[in-house]
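Side project, low priority. Logging it here so it doesn't get lost.
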Amino acid sequence: MSIDQDYRTVKKLLVVSVLLLLCTVGLVLVGVWTVFVQESPSHLLGRAPKKVVPAVLVTPRGDLAISEKTTIEIFERVAPSVVFITKLAVRHDPFRRNYTTIPKGTGSGFMWDRAGHIVTNYHVIQGGNAARVTLSDRSVWAAELVGYYDDKDLAVLRIDAPVEQLHPLAIGSSNDLVVGQHAFAIGNPFGLDHTLSTGVVSGLGREIPAITGRPIQGAIQTDAAINPGNSGGPLLDSAGRLIGINTQIFSPSGTSAGVGFAVPVDTVKRIVPQLIEHGRVIRAGLGVKVDEGAWSKRAGIKGALVLDVIPGSSAEKVGIKPTMLDRSTGQILLGDLIVSIDDKAIHEANDLFRVLDTHEVGQTVSVVILRGEKQIKFSIKLMPIEER
């Protein structure tokens, strides 16, 4: 074999060897890349690794409980009767020479009848120059004040809305309530319209102060949450009937702590018709003005001290004497001290209000007074006393 042939043979072998080496290196690189792609963390490659995610299984709920259905039915039926009340202040702008209305507070109320009368708490609209009422259909109506009775924290407004938009509440009673029965409150706490809270009647026969300081007797205590904005809204029983008007909460923080109070519906039924008819309340009274604490505490006496006697009143006719100034000496001569009515002890003015609140105009009561050291008994026919 010649030298040229040997050289060509060696050259072919070298070329083949280099090709085989390149193929081997290529295969190794492909294998390494494959392993790198499959095993490298997703944040290095810019894509998430493939995972098998199991399907979310939704467990069928089944039917609602009977109590839940009852609550839902009550809310859906009663909600159209509950309104949102905005108290307004009307102010004169001397620069623009016009009047503007400014919201001053909010509360709740409910429809009393198809004449457009709305019942709420007096403190909801107290201090305002005007008010507007928002119905459940979002329509807004200007409201006029029909009348109020601050001693029971009640007020009646009226809106001129079409009768088809008026849905009066069913009226219940409060004299047959029992502790433990379900109670439902609907209102607009913190401006959140048509909010439902549930609970029970926690107590009965409570006494709460009105904004005048006089007692509201027979108040209903409930643990159904009552917050600012709920005032004036209805407290309902499990039949969806009105049993009270949510009025106060007992809470140092000013928000619901599970102790709320409602004016009983039996009181509402007595007061509201009078406000609608007369714009004021006509209650039974003796025809006297009594001291509500200042003079009695100073003198250290117990009873309802008569400060004044209304001319022509029942009290004047039987000879009840008022507190007077002795002009010759400049001394105050204390009037008669009412200590008993119908054998119920009177220790202060609020006791007198409590007793008279249970009587009607025209009834005759037995009144015992102290005049100095002398005890005198009168029979007095209760007369109508008009109050705002």
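Brief comment: The two ends are 139 Å apart (CA to CA).
Revisit when time allows.
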